[in-house]
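Q: My labmate handed me this sequence with no annotations at all. I'd like to see what the chain might look like in three dimensions before we decide whether it's worth expressing. Could you predict it?
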Amino acid sequence: MKVKICGLSTAEQVKTSINFGANFCGFILNYPKSHRYIQFEKAKELTNIEKKNSKYVAVLVEPKNDELEKFSKLNIDYFQIYGKYNSETIFNIKSKFNKKIIVAIQVKNEKDILNYKEFENVADIILWDSSGLEHSIEWNYNWIKSVPKSITKMIAGNVNIDKLEKISKLADIVDVSGALETNKVKDIYKIKNFLNKLNKINNEN
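A: Here is what I predict for the chain of 205 residues:
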């Protein structure tokens, strides 16, 4: 299972994530309500750090066209998009800006899982997340068992180190943020610990 560390805001956090094997590093770029939000200049600085084997992800909530234009100039690989879109809009964003796309589906109940069907042919990754945006809320991860293996599945929403074993049997990628913070700031020790645990699980499987 791969891992995305989301809501990074300092060079030390980014370098630690990369050096300890994070596959994706996520940056909150247009959602100031989140305490993880960073300004454009900071995003520019962080995405210029050598990413080695990691991929950089711009996390965007209902982005406007001029925002997509602006963020597409950063050294990023993926747009992770929240909001009410259809497959045609996502396809157009993907084509125009030449970025891979993570479509985020917010889950309140089991039938929300099926919303992936709209995007299965245009998204590179489908993320099932809680309905809380900046607030991490738990949902029943088992609901995604019905999703076919052909879909690259990412899980977020109140993920922590104790749930890794379970999530590794359900998803291709785990997306973690709040569990790696102390007083709303990413904790370098927690990042290392989480990534070491994931590597251990991957080596055992």
